[in-house]
Amino acid sequence: QVQLVESGGGLVQPGGSLRLSCAASGRTDSTFVMGWFRQAPGKEREGVSCMSNIGHSTDYADSVKGRFTMSRSYTENTIYLQMNDLKPEDTAVYYCAVTWAPPQTMCSMQSSDYDHWGQGTQVTVSS
Questions:
Q1: pLDDT tens-digit profile of 87-97?
Q2: Which one of 37, 93, 99, 108 is most buried, by most CB atoms within 10 A?
Q3: Strand ranges inside the chain, DSSP E
Q4: CB–CB of 8/19 below 8 Å?
Q5: 29 pLDDT above the threshold of 80
Q6: How far is 92 from 49, CA to CA, in rounded Å?
Q7: Across-strand partners of 85?
Q8: Distance (Å, rounded) from C-alpha 116 to C-alpha 97?
Q9: What integer pLDDT is reported at residue 76 of this predicted model?
C-alpha cells in the first residue's frame, strides 16, 4: 500500500504560479507510474499530466502544455507539479495518483488506470 498527501494549493491571481507536492509513503519504488488529475465543480475528473517509470517520460493535457511541469524526487519520495501562468479555468481540486506497472516509457492520463489517490488540494485562480 502507498499513501499520498498533496500540498501546495491555494488562491493565486491569473498569471501567477503554484507548485503542488505529493508526498508518498508506505510502499514506494521506481515502478510507479504517476499522474496529476484535477476536478472542477460540476465537471468530470481530468488528467493533467503523467510520468512513466522508465526514462521519466511525461505527457500533458493540451490545456496545460507549456505552462505545467511534472517532476519527481526519488530521495524525497515526492512528485511535483509546477504550474505557471495560471488561468481561471485551472481552478479545481488537484489530485496525485500512482499505479504500479511493468517498466514502460509511456504513461496514462486515464483516472481508471490508477489505484492509489491522494486527498486532493484546492487551487483557485481568481483576481
A1: 999 999 999 99
A2: 37
A3: 2-7, 10-12, 18-26, 32-39, 46-51, 58-60, 68-73, 78-83, 92-100, 116-117, 121-125
A4: yes
A5: no
A6: 14
A7: none
A8: 5
A9: 78
Residue 77: per-residue pLDDT: 84
The residue count for the chain: 127
Work out the percent of the chain whose per-residue pLDDT is above 70: 99
Q: How far apart are CA 95 and CA 85, in angstroms?
A: 19
Residue 41, all three cell numbers: 465543480
- Nearest CA to 119 out of 94, 86, 84, 85 is that of 94
Contacts of 36 (CB under 8 A, 6+ apart): 20, 22, 47, 48, 49, 50, 70, 79, 81, 94, 95, 96, 97
